[in-house]
């Protein structure tokens, strides 16, 4: 279809973009912030098509998810002109998708030898700053979509500041991140922030079932629930066989607060290393440390979902479809936390994830987390 209506369940983001287009006041620098796999990059590409289209159309919002009762025309790309066809084929010379892996295409052969583990300043200069100052090839505009900018180091972010503050005429930069809080404040202040919400679990489950025919309906619902509204994360759980680690995480929580914290932390880190091996199969530039950190992030997500489930089960009995299928009890196990303790536990998990992104000592970080979770469980 390749239309603005491809973006589902993001009314806030859709409406903000449409208001700016209608008033001809679209910011030159946009920050698309929200969970992975909820439509950020899809909306970025659809917006790029609109900006580059030779024959932009206006449509009625009725029937377009998030834009029903919009009260005015909806801007969209025609989908048929030369610019639109080039965008669809990812071959438009004025649509630049930039990420850390472009280090392999850097003009300097010495820089090409580097791993793409971070979004480096060399990539920003060669593929954003230097190109932004040139004229559009096909005459309308230039659009840069910068993926996972939270992986930029400080040097790269600082180098980008001037371009964000004063983008050249007819140049638009769309920065995509799942961790806006990790960016320099000066980056955030120079962008118009467009927030994206988690997708409805039922929508994610339906899409998972369609994409993975061998899955049962209950399995799709379980993965969707664990993913917390992220289509990308749900599919990653399936691809990485992450749910096979779920029983181990249940056992880990069950061992707190009386178990051996050091040994428990070591078991969790060992599980993360196994997940990291799968990460490296998909991303050859991922270092052992980065792969392990991403594995730990996935395990922390499993723990957070179990804790949230425990809180909801204690308040209202949890979700009916999971209870009916017998999955709810397997997900929550014997874990029981007061709502306040569950909230504190989820915040502790988020804090641990934040620390891991900053390369703290992994063993100490996990041990500290487990000690804190143990205290909350004991107090409940």
Spans where pLDDT lies below 50 across 5 or more residues: 320-332
Tell me how many strands there are: 7
Please give the largest β-sheet: 5 strands, parallel
CATH superfamily of the largest domain: P-loop containing nucleotide triphosphate hydrolases
Amount of beta strand:
5-15%
Number of helices: 17
Mean of residue pLDDT? 88
- CATH-defined fold name of the largest domain: Rossmann fold
Q: What features would you describe in this structure?
A:
The chain is an alpha/beta fold and 380 residues long. It folds into two domains: 192 residues, Rossmann fold, CATH 3.40.50; 140 residues, Zinc Finger, Delta Prime, domain 3 (Up-down Bundle). The strands form two sheets. It has a five-stranded parallel sheet with strand order 4-5-6-1-7, sandwiched between helices. Strands 2-3 form a two-stranded antiparallel sheet. α2 runs antiparallel to α3 and α12 packs across α17. The longest helix has 29 residues. It is globular, with a radius of gyration of 22 Å. The termini are far apart. The relative contact order is 0.10. About 3% of the residues have low confidence.
Question: What's the layout of helices and strands?
Answer:
Blueprint: H1 11-22, E1 29-33, H2 40-52, E2 57-59, E3 74-76, H3 82-88, E4 95-98, H4 109-112, H5 121-132, E5 142-146, H6 154-165, E6 171-177, H7 185-189, E7 192-195, H8 201-211, H9 217-227, H10 231-239, H11 246-255, H12 261-282, H13 288-316, H14 320-325, H15 327-332, H16 339-356, H17 362-379
Parallel strand pairs: 1-6, 1-7, 4-5, 5-6
Antiparallel strand pairs: 2-3
Helix pairs in contact: 2-3, 5-6, 8-9, 9-10, 11-13, 12-13, 12-17, 13-16, 16-17
